[in-house]
């Protein structure tokens, strides 16, 4: 059992910033502000809820689709950057390849090994997408059936599923998927604004990497992104400042109350420039950017601590940026004991200096080695 311990700093709690001591074992047991340290705030670390990344393909040179123990490697790599919980994310692929990836994820979900972020479940990104909006996905798309999803869901719990609502019977399938506890996200879609609105009315919950891999904001022919800006409560966005222009990020921040951020990280994350796997595709990392040989963006090399710094560089205050990396993704999944610093919540924490550099990470009360 994890021993009881404490951290001192400026704590971003459910009620805002406080200065004091955070006591915890596996969960937060108390927040003590009665004897605040008299040192100057510049010397006191910032303690935020651990980051929750709902779209992670890889890291440390390996890809979730490789199966086996790659999910554990990915979860360790991202934990060192403050990610305390994540969804392992698949690619469009042949059925056997998806099955292999989910079998590997199942083991990582069942047991959190030392040094790992908690793997909460699966984000199934493909194969139920549009051939017209593949992005970096290979052309192996299929139309979803409830039986297909139930079979995959039985291997490893699907928490988020990306689909194109305009295809076949996908719109009619959304209520049944929602009844399974799956958050249906609209993405990799050539659908219209009306398709997006109909999917939201049917129970779709969010949007996959907003603006990327979907029809846009043409004022004569509005698309899926316009439906998100007009009606969504939640959507994910990649804030690497490559996938989405800062002006479009600000637009989304004003329009979508609980816009949250993801990395869409690939095997190239944390690695030097070079060639890496993304499902059956090969991607190239150069100067921090990940692309297919065609030049198209193909996921990212982003980490959540850099996402925080990017959001702050755009003018968000630290608390707002933190909510979009922790609280909102937890709320989106219906989890009320992660993504916040509150008594009874899991002790998932990231300790930052005043340059917002990671100085410590705690997952369920356990310290993560940063080197």
Write the layout of secondary structure elements.
Elements: E1 5-13, E2 16-24, E3 28-32, E4 46-49, E5 51-56, E6 58-59, E7 62-63, H1 70-79, E8 83-89, H2 95-110, E9 118-125, H3 146-155, E10 158-163, H4 170-179, E11 183-186, H5 193-202, E12 206-207, H6 224-231, E13 234-237, H7 246-255, E14 258-261, E15 274-278, E16 281-286, E17 289-291, H8 304-313, H9 318-325, H10 327-332, E18 349-352, E19 358-363, E20 366-367
Parallel strand pairs: 1-4, 5-8, 8-9, 9-10, 10-11, 11-12, 13-14
Antiparallel strand pairs: 1-2, 2-3, 4-18, 6-7, 15-16, 16-17, 18-19, 19-20
GO molecular function, one term: N-acetylglucosamine-6-phosphate deacetylase activity
Domain Amidohydrolase-related: 47-365
Protein name: N-acetylglucosamine-6-phosphate deacetylase
How would you describe the overall organization of this protein?
Keywords: Carbohydrate metabolism, Hydrolase, Metal-binding. With 371 residues, the chain is an alpha/beta fold. The chain has a single domain (50-337), classed as TIM Barrel, CATH 3.20.20. It has ten helices and 20 strands. The protein has helices at 70-79, 95-110, 146-155, 170-179, 193-202, 224-231, 246-255, 304-313, 318-325, 327-332, and strands at residues 5-13, 16-24, 28-32, 46-49, 51-56, 58-59, 62-63, 83-89, 118-125, 158-163, 183-186, 206-207, 234-237, 258-261, 274-278, 281-286, 289-291, 349-352, 358-363, 366-367. It has a seven-stranded mixed sheet with strand order 3-2-1-4-18-19-20, with no helix packed on it. It has a six-stranded parallel sheet with strand order 5-8-9-10-11-12. Strand 16 and strand 17 form a beta hairpin. Helix 4 packs parallel to helix 5 (193-202), helix 5 (193-202) packs across helix 6 (224-231) and helix 8 (304-313) packs antiparallel against helix 9. It is globular. The mean pLDDT is 96.
